[in-house]
Specification:
It is a single chain. The protein is α/β, with parallel strands linked by helices. It has 12 helices and 12 strands. The protein has 2 domains: about 30-145 and about 265-290, Response regulator (Rossmann fold, 3-Layer(aba) Sandwich), CATH 3.40.50; about 150-265 and about 295-325, Response regulator (Rossmann fold, 3-Layer(aba) Sandwich). Strands 7-6-8-9-10-11-12 form a 7-stranded mixed sheet, with helices on both faces.
Length: about 325
Amino acid sequence: MKRRDFIRFVGGAAAWPYAVGAQPRHVWRIGFLSGKSEPSSLAGTVYGEFLKGMNGFGYIEGRDFVMDWRFAAGDFSRLPGMAAELAARQVDVIIAGFTGAALAAKKATASIPIVLGYTADPVGTRLVESLAHPGGNITGLATYLPEIAAKQFELLTAVAPRLTRVGILLNPDNLAYVGMLKTARGAATATSIQLTVLEARSTDETRHAFETLDQQVQAVMVVPDPVYDPPRSVVADLALMYRLPSIHPYAEYAALGGLMSYGDSLGKFYRRAAYFVDKIFKGVLPRELPVEQPSTFEFVVNLRTAKALGLDVPATLLAHADQVLE
């Protein structure tokens, strides 16, 4: 063997294992479709909780995955276009921030996996075939169950036993309200309480809804919606301003000044969404991952708000609270 050929052989042999070891790491692309406004910082928000969830499974943003965020800022008409953009960018998975986002994503793609970050009644809205066998390319979390509206109604009447008129705040553009409204109407009829529907599609409409209440209602139930969700505190602030006891679907509302919440934590749901993303990245098909729903619900009471409203929360009710904010 000529010296030149030998050097070339040795050099190639030495470089070969290095080249194999230096194969570029696959970087996943995650699309996130939200109905909310884009926060100035992700830290401390439910989106930050999703990133923490990914970290918990060993994924580092920028090294193992990149995020492709889309925020509709309460204008749900933008969702179909945003979902189509994510599909065109061929993201590896789409996280749907609420029911409307999931429906838009489903229309945009039948092949890219879609993870439900939080949704109400995914079977009733035909996002999945069933919770146990979702079918298609969608799985994730059924985070708000319409039947808990009856429990929320019960808690309101326990705090204010003389209630005769209750308002239910909902966004008519968000199908999440359908099941809860049906359940709330049943609970109202059973207790001979008048239920008034308050529609609001934006923060301005929410303020207007409270301004026009006058003496129509004595308390308010809130249906989950990106327009009302934390970090916005406008609903809790308005309820306090108009001296209305309020009950909310997620613990974050009570921390912002709502009187009570019964449900779970948005942050907890988004952290759990990372579990589905991890499974999908490891090769599991969405249809093989059952949709999860809450097995426990958290009851939170804000005593500061109760005192501001002049309400004396029964000790028996406080004893059943998972968290009391003083």
